[in-house]
Amino acid sequence: MRHGPRGAPTRDVLLVSAIITISLSVTVVLCGLCHWCQRKLGKRYKNSLETVGTPDSGRGRSEKKAIKLPAGGKAVDTALVPGQTPHDESDRRTEPRSSVSDLVNSLTSEMLMLSPGSEEDEAHEGCSRENLGRIQFSVGYNFQESTLTVKILKAQELPAKDFSGTSDPFVKIYLLPDKKHKLETKVKRKNLNPHWNETFLFEGFPYEKVVQRVLYLQVLDYDRFSRNDPIGEVSIPLNKVDLTQMQTFWKDLKPCSDGSGSRGELLLSLCYNPSANSIIVNIIKARNLKAMDIGGTSDPYVKVWLMYKDKRVEKKKTVTMKRNLNPIFNESFAFDIPTEKLRETTIVITVMDKDRLSRNDVIGKIYLSWKSGPGEVRHWKDMIARPRQPVAQWHQLKA
Questions:
Q1: Which intervals hold domain C2 (predicted)?
Q2: Are the C-beta atoms of residues 250 and 136 closer than 8 Å to each other?
């Protein structure tokens, strides 16, 4: 080795030392980056696990559309593992294969398959209160015969009110304020787009009285076993219609007004046990029930029907609470329901008023299934998403 004056290192030795120092520095930096990358990848993978574990989170809902249920009822998983986007191929290779397999298996479990969770379902539930379908009808007046003619033509996009996913619609026709005299169309079985093409005549009706009336159409779903379910209504003042010739209208159906006011609410919980193939319904309490008796009170009790494919399978009922509009029941009932039958199952809960001298009165009903109203569907989905856990929710009683 060559040395300069007084033993100082030469230029070559200094150059070699500098290269070694830079190499060591680069190695340290790369090691730090490597650990940082591992932490980032680990965090991303952890987030994907958390997303699957919380199906009620906002991210979980948007990614449930990876699971679609065809008509046959078998699940088809056609999308990516939640938390992974198409450009994450390099990240996915760093994840343990067994963990990814566990993720997919958890998503394709039978319980999640039975829970309707696509974005299309969410959108449908959100608008089901608004979209009640529409009805087409014609109105005209014959001055020579003093006769008002009303033709009920057809309806479109009616909501399903029956357990089978359809309705049996018919139309009632009134000339308000007279509600005693009404006319009705025929019932169209299992039809959400019915065609009636029926003509109704209000004969001997002076024109001066006709223009003081309101044509009121109410579309209902016929029910052989209980009270008919209202679907929607349309009203049109006849003084705003040119009756000299037949006028045809398309009108959106609006929610039926209930002149009797609120029927009250019921708090109940649902608990599904997939291993035992059972649902436990706990009738907890009610509040602000409608008074059905002359004394301004009611004697409520609750009936719980298990329905499968439009057929009544099993019935349970609570005790009667005398003269109480805010009763506390706290009674539980277990129903055997195999997992493969959940999609065709409906639980019908009816709050009744006990009457010793006459027929018991219906205060209100609740239909619980995966295809009921928005609130009921939410409760049903929460029950399926959280097996073996009681899920409680308040429900508004309906006519």
A1: 131-251, 262-395
A2: yes
Q: Where are the alpha helices (DSSP H) in 119-210?
A: 119-127, 207-210
Q: How far is CA 174 from CA 112, 131, 145, 350, in A?
A: 47, 23, 20, 29
Contact 204, 225 (CB under 8 A): no
Answer for the pair 365, 265: CB distance below 8 angstroms, yes or no: no
Q: Where are the alpha helices (DSSP H) in the chain?
A: 11-53, 58-63, 89-94, 97-107, 110-113, 119-127, 207-210, 374-385
**Domain end among 213, 231, 252:** 252
Question: Strands of 391-396's sheet, edge to edge?
Answer: 328-336, 278-287, 265-273, 391-396
pLDDT digits (tens, 9 = 90+) for 204-252: 889 999 999 999 999 999 877 666 788 999 999 999 999 999 999 999 9
Supply the DSSP symbol for 65: G
**Are residue 161 and residue 282 in the same domain, yes or no?**
no
pLDDT at residue 19, rounded to an integer: 62
Scanning the structure block, which residue is given the tokens 């506390």?
328
End-to-end Cα, the chain, rounded Å: 103
Q: How far apart are CA 271 and CA 279, in angstroms?
A: 6
**Which CATH number fits the domain that encloses residue 143?**
2.60.40.150
Which are the contacts of 222, defined by CB distance < 8 A and separation ≥ 6?
A: 168, 169, 170, 187, 228
Where a domain ends, among 252, 283, 306? Answer: 252
CA neighbor of 396 nearest in space, from 370, 365, 368: 365
